[in-house]
Each structure stands twice: as structure tokens, then as C-alpha cells.
Design brief:
The complex is a heterodimer of chains A (290) and B (111). Chain A contains 13 helices and seven strands. Chain A has 290 residues and is of the alpha+beta class. In chain A, helix 3 crosses helix 4 (69-75) and helix 8 (182-189) packs across helix 9. Chain B has one domain: Beta-Lactamase. The chains are: A alpha+beta (290), B alpha+beta (111).
């Protein structure tokens, strides 16, 4: 509450899955760091929008001059100011969506501002970002969308000649090796996690992809198999294991996909973010719904 | 924006349907409209098909009795790109002039 009284700048550190750090400046969100979503730097470099060498040169110049990286990228005409603002706003929305759809175990507000590589100045309104995160979760809840950490594999025959692939679908199929998740693909391609999940949902609907299993569940097969191997089930009756294999949840039946997206989870971050905003703004927004 | 008959304008991320920035008259549900516009752009690109002998999607014009909606695809190479949505009053706008003017102003949005 010290932060709220002192004003509007600081860092909200969120512990959880995936967790992250929300940087606030003058009451609005300037940057979000999370291992769950690609940063603006990753989005620019992995999408090949900006070359590594151009980035490195701009970074060195900005660091030497003690100036902001964003202004240096614009000054060198590597990206336009409007395009950079668009990128930073979409990256913030993606990071907030990932934090809001994950779990929040603990949070800590630090009143001291910290450096971020590409902050948005002036920042984005936290309420707008939370409303966008809620919208995204509602959209995914209504789709056959998989979790961002379900492993994705190309469906048999998806890439064969004659199958017409749409925007960027060939890149997704090339990465869908049964080990990568939507999150891995977003990082590899330099795209947002939400944009990737939407693309994957459309490709699932078109029969181009399948889900292997969930990494988040921590199991590749049903737990029963391990128990039997450990001797939990006595291997006495020879007919019994055969019947078990045909039973639901046994190794022969595929794991049913979970329904991970449930609308209404985003406000979990509303209270922590309120700690870093001025009291007047909190009171004005207290009646607002997501 | 210096285009006759403009009621509102918005910059929209095509991949997510998110409104990046907006200006103009209140009252339009831009958040819901932006999602539909992003879908329209995606469908229109699919209609053009692979190869696109006539060139990539540039603009979609939607005309009703009272309104003119222009959806201008901007030349961003990030993700699926961005679009500029311009909502005009049809009684005050000329479709050809509005399209020309929006085309002239569009590059400045990303610059």
C-alpha cells in the first residue's frame, strides 16, 4: 500500500505459473517480462522483422548514449514509430493475457522503477489490458483451443501435396513435431501466444493438427501403467491386463483434450495491479467490470 | 484525420483482432467490430488464394445505406500485419475520394 500512496511507478513481481514482472510508469503499464510470452525483442528478431546485426548496433549505440532503445530503432529507421507502438501494445496485451490465464501464487509491489529493454511510453492502461485478457480467454473458451503447453503434432497427411495451406500454416506444420507446444511455436516464430493459439485452433478445426498430451499435466501416459510396472497391481490373472487395456483411460485410448480456458479468470490480477495505481484512479474504476 | 465524413478510425492487429489505437466519435463498439474486421481481412486473403496473381489484399470497402467502412491493410511485416479501419458517414463521404485519401494517409500511421 506504500506504493499506492507514493504514486504510480514501480514493478509488480508476480510469482506463479508462468509469473513475471509488470512495470508501471505514471500509473500505466510500460513493460511486462514473463517467460510465458515472447518479449518485443523476440517478436522483432525471430520474425526477421529486424536483423540481429541491426538490433545489436542499435543496442550498442543506445547503451553508450544511455538513451532509450525504442528511440534508437526509430532514429535508424529500422522500424517506424507507429509500427513500434503497435508492436509494444500487442506484446503487452499478449504478456498480460499469459499472466492472467496462468496462476498467481504471490505478488510483491516494489516502488522502485526498474529498467526494461523496450518500454511503452506513455504506457497502456492496466484496465484496458485486463479487459483484453478477459476477452481473449472468453474467445479461447468458446473454441476447441488447446492449452499453450499442450504438445502439438501435425495430422497424418496434413503437409502432403494438394492440401492447400493458408497464411503461415506451413511454418506451424514444420514445427508441429509432437514435442513443441503453442508457447514454443510462438517463441520460435516471433508471434504472440494468443495469435498462435488462434491459428492452432483454426488448424485443429481444419484437421491439420492433433494434440499429443499435456506437458502441464506432467504425464505422457495414464498413471495406471506406471503403477503396474512398480508392482502396485499383482500380475496374477492373465486376462485382467487385457481388459484393462480396453478400458477408458488405458494406454490404447487417447487422452481426451482438457478444456483449459475458462472465462472470468483475468480479474485475479486486478487487485495486485491496484496496489501500484493512485488511490483516485482506483476509486474511479472500482465499479468497472472486465 | 483529414477525410470528409469520418466518424471514427482505429488501428487493429489482424492476428488478434485487438484495437491498438482509436480516435473519433464514441458510441461505436470498436472492440467487437475490430475482431470482425480482422476475420474479414483473413477471409478476404483466403478468397484471393495462394499466389495472388492480382496482388495482396489492399483494401475492403463495406457500404450500407448510412455508412461507409474502409478497411485499409497496412504494410507491416509483423505477424499477420495491421489494418486501419475508417468509419465514414455516407451522406458526407465520396467512396472513391475517401479511398484515395485514406490510401495517402495510411503510410504515416506506421511511420
Amino acid at each position: 500500500m506504500v506504493c499506492a500512496a507514493a504514486g504510480m511507478s514501480g514493478v509488480l513481481r508476480v510469482t506463479g505459473d508462468p509469473g513475471g514482472a509488470i512495470h508501471l510508469a505514471d500509473g500505466s503499464v510500460a513493460a511486462i517480462e514473463t517467460p510465458g510470452a515472447p518479449s518485443p525483442e523476440v517478436l522483432l528478431l525471430r520474425s526477421h522483422r529486424v536483423s540481429e546485426s541491426a538490433w545489436d548496433t542499435a543496442f550498442a549505440t543506445a547503451a553508450a548514449a544511455g538513451g532509450p532503445m525504442g528511440a534508437e530503432l526509430v532514429r535508424r529507421e529500422i522500424v517506424g514509430a507507429g509500427e513500434l507502438e503497435g508492436l509494444l501494445r500487442t506484446a503487452l496485451a499478449d504478456a498480460m493475457f499469459v499472466l492472467a490465464s496462468g496462476t498467481v501464487e504471490e505478488y510483491r509491489a516494489e516502488p522502485e522503477p526498474a529498467d526494461a529493454v523496450l518500454p511503452l511510453r506513455p504506457g497502456a492502461a492496466a484496465d484496458v489490458l485486463l479487459a483484453e485478457a478477459s476477452r481473449r480467454i472468453r474467445v479461447l473458451a468458446a473454441l476447441p483451443a488447446r492449452h499453450d503447453r499442450d504438445r502439438i503434432v501435425a495430422a497424418a497427411g496434413a503437409a502432403r501435396p494438394g492440401v492447400r495451406l493458408g497464411e503461415g500454416q506451413d511454418e506451424i506444420l514444420a514445427l508441429a513435431d509432437g514435442r513443441r507446444t503453442a508457447r514454443d511455436m510462438a517463441f520460435a516464430l516471433g508471434r504472440g501466444v494468443y495469435a498462435t493459439l488462434l491459428q492452432l485452433a483454426r488448424m485443429h478445426q481444419a484437421g491439420l493438427l492433433a494434440t499429443v498430451s499435456s506437458r502441464a499435466d506432467g504425464a505422457d501416459g495414464p498413471p495406471g501403467a506406471d503403477e503396474r510396472e512398480r508392482g502396485g497391481v499383482p500380475p496374477v490373472a492373465s486376462a485382467l491386463p487385457r481388459r484393462q487395456r480396453d478400458a477408458p483411460g488405458s494406454p490404447s485410448s487417447p487422452t481426451p483434450p482438457r478444456r483449459p480456458w475458462q472465462a472470468g479468470r483475468a480479474p485475479e490480477l486486478r487487485a495486485p495491479l491496484g496496489l501500484l495505481r493512485p488511490r483516485a484512479a482506483r476509486d474511479a474504476n472500482s465499479g468497472e467490470t472486465a | 484525420m483529414a477525410v470528409d465524413g469520418v466518424r471514427a478510425a482505429a488501428l487493429v492487429d489482424i492476428a488478434t483482432g485487438m484495437v491498438i489505437r482509436s480516435a473519433g466519435e464514441e458510441g461505436t463498439d470498436l472492440v467487437a467490430a475490430a475482431v470482425s474486421m480482422a476475420d474479414e481481412a483473413r477471409v478476404a486473403r483466403a478468397v484471393l488464394g495462394p499466389g495472388r496473381p492480382g496482388g495482396d489484399l489492399d483494401e475492403i470497402a463495406l457500404v450500407t445505406k448510412g455508412r461507409l467502412h474502409l478497411i485499409k491493410i497496412l504494410g507491416s511485416r509483423l505477424g499477420e500485419g495491421m489494418l486501419l479501419f475508417v468509419d465514414l458517414d455516407r451522406t458526407q463521404a465520396n467512396i472513391a475520394l475517401a479511398s484515395l485519401r485514406v490510401g495517402q494517409l495510411a503510410p504515416a500511421v506506421l511511420a
